[in-house]
Every structure is written in C-alpha cells, then in structure tokens.
C-alpha cells in the first residue's frame, strides 16, 4: 500500500521510521505524555538529539490510505503556528506520527490544572491574547494557505501546544481534508 502511494504521489516531505526506530526513540515507550481517542502519546528523542512527541495510533484498520493521505497533507504544511510533523511509521497495523516537541505542553494545563505551579506564572491576559492570535493565524493558514484545505475539527486547549516562548501552535489532529471550504 505505502509503496503504491509513493509511486502515485511522489516522495513525502517527512521521514519514514520503522517500528523498531519508534521503540528506540521512545525508550520502549517509557515516558507517556497522555492519551486520546486516537492513541497514546509518548516523549521521544531522535538520533540527532531533538526531542519529539510520538503519537501511537490505535485501531489502525484498513489499508492505510486515509492515514497516508493525512501524512501527505500534514507534511506539506509549514507555518509558525502549526506543530511540524517530522516523520511517521507505517508497518502493517502499527502506525505512528512523530511531531516536534513543545516544551511547555498544552494550553489546557495552564488554564484548568490547579496543581500546575506554572499556571498563573506566564499566562496573563496579554499572553492569552498572543496565543489566541497564533491559533487564529494557524487556522487561517489551514483553511486558506494550504493547497489542500484542512479542517481541524478539534480545537480545544488540550490541542493547543506552547513552545519555549509560549507561542501557541496547533496540534495537527486533522479531521478532514478538502479542496474547498
């Protein structure tokens, strides 16, 4: 399936990793960051030392055409407010997405987590305003700036990730891709 996809659509702009590579980069799935309806999320490290987030997709059914279409679309996005997809794994039913790591985690923990010691430390009204502008810019890019229009369908604080400067970036949990909006 993957080889046929690559023949038809050309090379992808992200790296393909084996499942063995995924296990190594996550140290056998040692540090779980969270879980969602689509799978579990782990912290990992590439061979070059860059930290990554590895999303292991569960319930991987079918021949993988939808998965590969999503990988192809996400890999062609490039915007300061969209988390970059660095790679993927597609071995039989084992599928994973590898994203750049956002050191400050999700916006959710700064808004709703009473146990977070950083909760009120950095996020005053001005910071929240800047984050909301980043979210709007990222969505505008997905809706108008991509060759393939992408609808997110799951915008919520949990899916807004913050970099080291607390710039908001949308996690590419894409629900639908379309040529028209």
TrEMBL record:
It catalyses: L-seryl-[protein] + ATP = O-phospho-L-seryl-[protein] + ADP + H(+); L-threonyl-[protein] + ATP = O-phospho-L-threonyl-[protein] + ADP + H(+). The keyword Transmembrane applies. Residues 27-181 form the Protein kinase domain. SUPFAM superfamilies: Protein kinase-like (PK-like) (SSF56112). GO terms for molecular function: ATP binding; hydrolase activity; protein serine kinase activity; protein serine/threonine kinase activity. Keywords: ATP-binding, Disulfide bond, EGF-like domain, Glycoprotein, Hydrolase, Kinase, Membrane, Nucleotide-binding, Receptor, Serine/threonine-protein kinase, Signal, Transferase, Transmembrane, Transmembrane helix. It is found in: Membrane. ATP binds at residue 55. Its EC number is 2.7.11.1. Pfam families: PK_Tyr_Ser-Thr (PF07714). It is a single-pass type I membrane protein. One of its GO terms (cellular component) is membrane. InterPro entries: Kinase-like_dom_sf, LRK10/LRL21-25-like, Prot_kinase_dom, Protein_kinase_ATP_BS, Ser-Thr/Tyr_kinase_cat_dom, Ser/Thr_kinase_AS. Belongs to the protein kinase superfamily. This is non-specific serine/threonine protein kinase. It comes from Rosa chinensis (China rose). The lineage of its organism: Eukaryota, Viridiplantae, Streptophyta, Embryophyta, Tracheophyta.
């Amino acid at each position: 399936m993957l080889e046929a996809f690559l023949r038809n659509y050309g090379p992808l702009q992200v790296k393909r990793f084996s499942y063995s590579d995924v296990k190594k980069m996550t140290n056998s799935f040692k540090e779980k960051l969270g879980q969602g309806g689509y799978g579990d999320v782990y912290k990992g490290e590439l061979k070059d030392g860059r930290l990554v987030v590895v999303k292991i997709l569960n319930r991987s059914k079918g021949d993988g055409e939808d998965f590969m279409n999503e990988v192809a679309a996400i890999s062609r996005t490039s915007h300061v407010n969209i988390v970059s997809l660095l790679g993927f794994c597609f071995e039989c039913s084992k599928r994973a997405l590898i994203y750049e790591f956002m050191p400050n985690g999700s916006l959710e923990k700064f808004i709703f987590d009473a146990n977070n010691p950083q909760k009120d430390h950095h996020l005053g009204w001005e910071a929240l305003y800047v984050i909301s502008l980043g979210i709007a810019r990222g969505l505008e890019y997905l809706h108008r700036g991509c060759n393939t229009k992408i609808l997110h369908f799951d915008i919520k604080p949990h899916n807004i990730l913050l970099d080291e400067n607390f710039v908001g970036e949308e996690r590419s949990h894409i629900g639908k891709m379309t040529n028209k909006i």
